Amino acid sequence: MPTTWYEAPIASINELAPNVRQFILKMPADTPLSYQAGQFITFDLPIGERRLQRWRSYSIAGAPEPKGNEFLELCIVRTPDGPGTTYLFDEVKVGTVLKFKGPDGAFCLPEQLDRDLVFICTGTGIAPFRSMLLDIKKRNRAHKKIHLIFGTRYESGILYREEMEALQAEFADFEFDIALSKEPDWKGHKGYVHPVYMDRYANPRPDLAFYICGWSNMIDEAVENLLIKLGYDRTQIHYELYG
Predict the structure, then answer these.
(1) Residues 233, 243: Cα–Cα separation, whole Å
(2) At what angle do helices 127-139 and 161-170 cross, to 10 degrees?
(3) pLDDT tens-digit profile of 41-58?
């Protein structure tokens, strides 16, 4: 089946945190995009000659709409040596038309949410989990407990904080934990995300499913901790590299 490419202008750009921006694309009125929470799109950016130079993938941060989305929300961090984010942060403006394909990816929740869910993420790795949580709320999906563990360096880098705290206040079965690695006066979890889930879920349970999103070294460590140190089954662990 041939790949479908879309062209959509940037409708808005907003600062979410230092070096993190929200980009909202506006789909053509007659071409809404249908996707599942947790999926991503891939831009073909004018930053090189070869495909591997031009193609950059980013998770969709907004909730899917039943009839497809007119607007697509992305949460993107600027990486120091990343030509893709250099272009998006320095050259793109409202009205710039971007070319992309998708949606793609299998980092999605099952239709039957019959296990407690533990979401582990760092930085903009929260994007697919925000999409999942908003989808669960919008569709009023039946679910068990959901625990979101978010890690970053500084308090200023906590993404969607008010939104997640509001969800926690609204739903007794949702818990939001933050781990900060560079804030000595932080009253919450200090350091990385790993001690949070390792302490909380030290005794393996078959009714848990772990979903992890972040840089590869964080994912590698989390998978090793869950599989080898704690003894969870591989089928209980799902992960997605930053995107």
Answers:
(1) 26
(2) 40
(3) 999 999 988 888 899 999
Pairwise CA distance, residues 231 & 243, whole Å: 28
**C-beta of residue 79 within 8 angstroms of C-beta of residue 85:** yes
pTM over 0.85: yes
Contacts of 45 (CB under 8 A, 6+ apart): 54, 55, 56, 83, 84, 87, 88, 98
Residue that is written with structure tokens 């998770």 in the block: 59
Burial class (CB in 10 A: 0-12, 13-18, 19+), 35: buried
Query: Would you give the distance in Å from CA 222 to the centre of its chain?
Result: 16
Phi, psi dihedrals of residue 139, rounded to the nearest 5° = -90, 0
Q: Are 189 and 203 in contact (CB under 8 A)?
A: no
Q: 199 is written with which tokens?
A: 């302490």
Distance (Å, whole) CA 45 – CA 83: 9
Which segments in the chain show pLDDT lower than 50?
A: 243
For residue range 84-100, list pLDDT tens digits in order. Answer: 999 999 999 999 999 99
Return the closest-CA partner of residue 56 out of 21, 101, 11: 101
